[in-house]
Amino acid sequence: MSKHIIIIGAVALGPKVACRLRRLDPDINITVIDRDNLISYGGCGIPYYIGGDITDIEALFSTTSHAIRDPEFFRTCKGIKIIPRVEALTINRTDKSILVRHLEQDTEETLTYDKLVIASGATPVRPPIPGADLPRVFTVSNLHSAKHIKDMISTGGVGKAVVIGAGAIGIEMAEALTDLWGVETTIVEMADQVLPQALGKNIARIVENQLEESGVKVILSQQVTQIQGTSETGVTAVQIGETTMDCDLVVLSAGVRPNTKFASDSGLAVGRSGALLVDRNLKTTDPDIYAGGDCIEMRNLVSGGNMTMPLGSLANRQGRIIANNIHGRAAQFKGTVGTFCIKVFELGAATAGLTVAQAKTAGFDPVHALVAQFDRAHFYPDSKFMFIQLIADRSTRKILGVEAIGEQADAVKARVDAIAPLLGAGLDVDDVCVLETGYAPPFASAMDVINNAGNVLDNILEGRNTPIDMLDFITLFKKEAIQVLDLREPSEAAPFIEKYGNRWLNIPQAELRQRFEELPRDQNLYLICGTGARSYESQVFLNQQGFKQVKNIQGGSAVLSVTDPDFALT
Amino acid sequence: MSKHIIIIGAVALGPKVACRLRRLDPDINITVIDRDNLISYGGCGIPYYIGGDITDIEALFSTTSHAIRDPEFFRTCKGIKIIPRVEALTINRTDKSILVRHLEQDTEETLTYDKLVIASGATPVRPPIPGADLPRVFTVSNLHSAKHIKDMISTGGVGKAVVIGAGAIGIEMAEALTDLWGVETTIVEMADQVLPQALGKNIARIVENQLEESGVKVILSQQVTQIQGTSETGVTAVQIGETTMDCDLVVLSAGVRPNTKFASDSGLAVGRSGALLVDRNLKTTDPDIYAGGDCIEMRNLVSGGNMTMPLGSLANRQGRIIANNIHGRAAQFKGTVGTFCIKVFELGAATAGLTVAQAKTAGFDPVHALVAQFDRAHFYPDSKFMFIQLIADRSTRKILGVEAIGEQADAVKARVDAIAPLLGAGLDVDDVCVLETGYAPPFASAMDVINNAGNVLDNILEGRNTPIDMLDFITLFKKEAIQVLDLREPSEAAPFIEKYGNRWLNIPQAELRQRFEELPRDQNLYLICGTGARSYESQVFLNQQGFKQVKNIQGGSAVLSVTDPDFALT
User: Which of B331, B333, B414 sits opposite A414 (nearest CB)?
Assistant: First the structure.
């Protein structure tokens, strides 16, 4: 008799396991259940549906050839039985059975399995804020709420919105509300930066600046303490500290919680996040039960710790591995380096590995370089600035993380993707200096920004480049009368000299070898140029002339201008 | 007394060595010589200057901050002495001196060195075709010839052009001539495909199709045997086999030859290509002489053999390594995997590692997968098809090469760059299946095309996917009355059924499980769908039903339609 496989969850990992298994074995008995009636959908596309990039919600559960991925599709095309509107209640591991409830009929049934796959996903957290259950307060959890939000916005029912949480979904939703619909949107984030799980502060600040420039108000380091309104009016305002802010819609994007209660109740081990613990074969602590996707903890290959990461890409890759293992072909999922990317209005951002803060928490001694450079040959017409932060451990020189942002989103992703797959293998700074990526003028500089980031980080680790972090510089400059030396041409330095007077000196780099004796030797000098290249070269020269208190402002005016509106170029 | 470093060549590697050395050591004595008066230029930008993407030739020898990189710039900004119009004649390795000629003054001088760096580059080959020295026959060798060509075109002097050689420069020049200037351009290539060094035939065919669609005539497997004209008229026609083709301009892009005669005459070892042999520290066979850039052979990290690869990106990375080594900080350049990218009108193509043909020559048993998939989530508005060919060795499953092409060039580069840095480290097929690259709908599918290419190749290696190569299919279909089974919807299959009658059956995938008994079991069946996914699934199903002669057409209609105009979608 052929084996019976039960799969709990039919969104991403579940169908992938089922379809792969069917191809591997025509006779195996596969049943997939899901609480919802809409299955196998691209949940990560919801913000683009709400924002109008995707007109028709069916696109999110259709194949590339426009077939609707419903149970009928899985039956006829894939040979898979999917039963919707069925909830898993308990697992009886001794009997190898699960008790389920048919939600429409309100009946219970016991299903037996040879192997069980838990693909139950995660549910958005509804934070314990008074009023969080009012009408017009949404989580972005499934296609039903997505349709509800869009129907409301598209009929003109929303003028002002508050998004609680500046993670990926919060930012994508803020863009969706603002960009097409012109909803006046505010993001409230309790951390002191946006995307606190994904980005360090330098790149996050560029994202915040972009959000503000695009009309999204960003409130950091604060919490919504109350959501006001009645069950008739729905939400009318939120309370943020002392401030009351009117709004017609609240989007809760405060993270997700893995759907694992029925599994942990049966004695399967979970980690601190509440997600299931699995081994490299994606087996839970019961050898007949596999799990994957948003409901498991994975090993972070850089920090060595465990993490959750709700991404359809990980779920799909894991699905194939679980199917292989069930079929008896050993396959492994070793972990993740947390690769992540996001579009934020005109910018694309991508990251992999640890931020400086995460690296410190994990016990490393992180050193970072922040480099600004054109993404194509600088003479190529549509070349744009890209900003890359590269982070290494001081003593081992191993790369801990990389973050990048720029206008040409695919080009940003290209740089991070060239590093990400190597992060788990102990790539070091020297490897990045010679990292071999494609070169032609429409694609890159001859010395690509990623190699340059390696070179700069190497120079910093060797003590040749003595940088000051951009945010530290801005804070210091606003607090103290520190001395800046601008190495650019007079026309470029002029607006800053006009604004800051003799705090902002200008000696073009070409004149520095003649004029360096004009400079004070007894005070700190903060060197700036367009991107950090000329200021580095000048810093080295001044060091060679005996100047000891010279700091190179990382990323130069290119980064400064997109980090703080006070320094925006006009 | 400080050391004296002489650097021969001031285009890419030479200035990089000099500037890095100056930053490492303020006292070291550095002299750079070059035959030309124009130095430190981006030679790879020449086609874009000729094609009008770059208006001003000075952009090719300016910094990102618009400073002209002339000897004065290097003196004032970099502290480097560059002497233009000086040619290296001989190296006297016993005395550690070089004899040079000042070309303007026509005088000779002996310069002594402690360390010598050879960065003499390469010169375009002028093939031994009668008439190759006629006026209006150009190599794309330096800014002087670039300016000459552009002046001629922009004054309307060119109606028809012939480009000899379909390497990168040949194709970039063909695009430059056609796109802006509307010159009627023909490329003649002696190999049976374009870009024979870089691409396998499948992807090359897509490039050829794009060139033809963009108005460039491509003639393969033929040679120009004579260039006709007089010294007064310049070129008037070329002879290709029996055909005479009128033209006003000939561009020779038949490869380059390393400028190493003066070096090999002094006893430095060269490889079969004539380029210098260097060790991992980029030292020649003389411990006081380093070399890098277009005049050296590098180790191909996939094949283990030696190769030349004239790319500014390699030269720049090598320059920093040579400077480090001269300064006493050991640094290594281990080799290259031949990463390459090119823009061809609306397409971007990228590649790394070996083609199928190169892999065979190197003694591997290559197996390839050709995958068509959208570069973003398929529901995201601007998603476009990308085509990836992934090649592995049959027995070891090690990845030997990857090629990709698509409309969104940065996205194409992102996929190849995610593989390229791992190629030298023995990446295998399973690693590609789980390769961790960034995911969000505006950037990728949840199962990205690169992971999918790994999955398909795994399925082929395991014998589950039994493909026929796209070009083999086209050849066979045009020669024999083979039976195609189209798994798409009737509306998609209809134009093919109309054209090919009962040679082109149609059973939509959703009906196959009911209707498979209609199919003949005693003849070969060639399965096609949109991209190869449904045809694979159907092939597996038919195999499971006992059909033994079923082949899956790799890449489906998506690849077929851009490979052969006979199958273009209307």
Answer: B414
pLDDT tens for B265-315 read 999 999 999 999 999 999 999 999 999 999 999 999 999 999 999 999 999
Measure the CA angle with vertex A327, ends A324 and A332; round to 5°.
30
Give, for B29, the enclosing helix (H) or strand (E): strand B29-33
Say if B421 is an interface residue toward chain A (CB within 8 Å).
yes
- The answer to whether B427 and B398 have CB atoms below 8 angstroms apart is yes
Decide if B29 contacts B3 (C-beta within 8 A). yes
List CB contacts of A507: < 8 A, sequence separation 6 or more.
Answer: A485, A486, A487, A515, A516, A518, A519
DSSP state of B476: H
Q: Check CB contact of A60 with chain B, cutoff 8 Å.
A: yes
CA atoms in the 13 A half-sphere facing the CB of A358: 25
Which positions in chain B touch A386 (Cβ < 8 Å)?
none
| Residue A404 forms contact with B (CB below 8 Å) | no
Question: Residues of chain A with pLDDT > 90: what percent?
Answer: 97
Taking contacts as CB-CB distances below 8 angstroms, the residues of chain B near A340 are: 438-440
For residue B317, which residues of chain A lie inside 8 Å, CB to CB? 433-434, 447, 451
Of B381, B509, B537, the CB nearest to A23: B537
Q: ∠ at Cα A138 (A132, A140), nearest 5°?
A: 130
d(CA B33, CA B10): 6
Token pair 């380029």 in the structure block, residue: B275
DSSP A374-388: ESS-TTSTT--EEEE
Neighbour count for residue B515 (Cβ, 10 Å):
11
Per-residue DSSP letter, B440: -
Rounded to whole angstroms, the Cα distance separating B340 from B146 reads 23
Q: Cβ separation of A437 and B339 shorter than 8 Å? A: yes
Q: Do B421 and A433 touch (CB under 8 A)?
A: no
d(CA B303, CA A555): 39
Chain A residues whose beta carbon lies within 8 Å of the beta carbon of residue B44: 377, 439-441, 446
**Is B406:B347 a contact under the CB 8 Å cutoff?**
yes
Q: Which residues pair with A216 in a beta bridge?
A: none
How do beta strands A97-102 and A86-92 pair?
antiparallel
* Cβ–Cβ pairs < 8 A, chains A and B: 280
pTM above 0.95, yes or no: yes
Q: For residue A570, is pLDDT > 90? A: no
